[in-house]
Design a protein that fits this description.
Elements (H helix, E strand, L loop, with lengths): L3 E5 L2 E8 L6 H12 L3 E4 L3 H8 L10 H14 L9 H12 L3 E4 L4 H11 L2 H17 L6 H12 L3 H22 L4 E7 H11 L1
Parallel strand pairs: 2-5, 3-4, 3-5
Antiparallel strand pairs: 1-2
Length: 206
C-alpha cells in the first residue's frame, strides 16, 4: 500500500494508497493503525459512506457497470476470494479504529456537494461517452498485470472524459481542504486514499 508520510503544520499525515476491494490490504491497514497510532483515521470516501460501511447489513451492493468491470478485472488476477465489498481497507480501518476509540471520518465530498458537482460537470454527452467506454471495457476488461495497474488504468480511462476529469479534480480539492482542517487539531492522521488519487492529493497539500 506504499505508505508516505508528510508534515502539514504541526500534524504528521501518513498516507496509505489503497486498491479498492483487495482483501489482502486488510491486514496491512490493521498493522498501520497499530504501529502509527493515529489520533484520527481519514478515509477517501464521503462522510455518509463511513456510516454506510460501518452499518452494512451484508446485502449485495448496487454497483454501476463500471464497478462490475473493475471487480471482474481484479478477480482475474487475485481470484474471487481476493476481492470483497465493502472495500476491506476501509471496513477494516473503521472496525479497528472503533475498537480503539479512534475517530474515523470521510474526507471526500458529502452527498449534497457531490450531486451539485456531478450535475455541473457531467453532461448527457459525457454520460453517452462513458457508456461507450463501459461497453468497450466489458468485452476486454481493464488492462493491467497487477491490481495497482488495473486501478490506475481504470481511473485514467475515466479521466479522459473532460467532465469526469473536472469532477475528480473537485473531489481532490475537497479531500485536501478537509485534511487541512483536521490538521488544526490532530497531531497524527492516517489517511487511506485510493491509489489513483494519492499523487494529486499530495500535490494539492503542498
Amino acid at each position: 500500500m506504499n505508505p508516505q508520510t508528510i508534515t502539514l503544520g504541526n500534524s504528521e499525515i501518513r498516507i496509505l494508497s489503497t486498491v479498492k476491494g483487495l482483501v489482502s490490504e486488510s491486514d496491512i491497514v490493521e498493522s498501520e493503525i497499530e504501529s502509527f497510532d493515529p489520533d484520527l483515521v481519514a478515509l477517501g470516501i464521503g462522510p455518509e459512506e463511513v456510516n454506510g460501511t460501518r452499518e452494512w447489513d451484508g446485502e449485495p451492493y448496487d454497483m454501476s457497470g463500471w464497478d462490475e468491470i473493475y471487480g471482474l478485472s481484479l478477480r482475474k488476477i487475485v481470484g474471487d476470494k481476493g476481492v470483497k465489498l465493502p472495500p476491506p481497507s476501509f471496513s477494516t480501518a473503521i472496525k479497528v479504529s472503533d475498537s480503539k476509540k479512534i475517530d474515523v471520518i470521510g474526507i471526500d465530498m458529502d452527498e449534497e456537494s457531490f450531486t451539485e458537482a456531478y450535475t455541473k460537470n457531467i453532461s448527457t454527452w459525457q454520460l453517452f461517452k462513458r457508456g461507450r467506454l463501459e461497453k468497450s471495457m466489458s468485452k476486454a476488461g481493464i488492462e493491467g498485470k497487477t491490481p495497482e495497474e488495473i486501478a490506475l488504468n481504470m481511473e485514467s480511462s475515466i479521466r479522459e472524459l473532460s467532465g469526469f476529469a473536472k469532477l475528480e479534480k473537485q473531489r481532490l480539492k475537497a479531500m485536501a481542504s478537509n485534511l487541512r482542517v483536521q490538521c488544526e487539531n490532530q497531531r497524527k492522521i492516517l489517511a487511506i486514499i485510493e491509489i489513483s488519487n494519492v499523487h494529486e492529493l499530495l500535490d494539492e497539500l503542498k
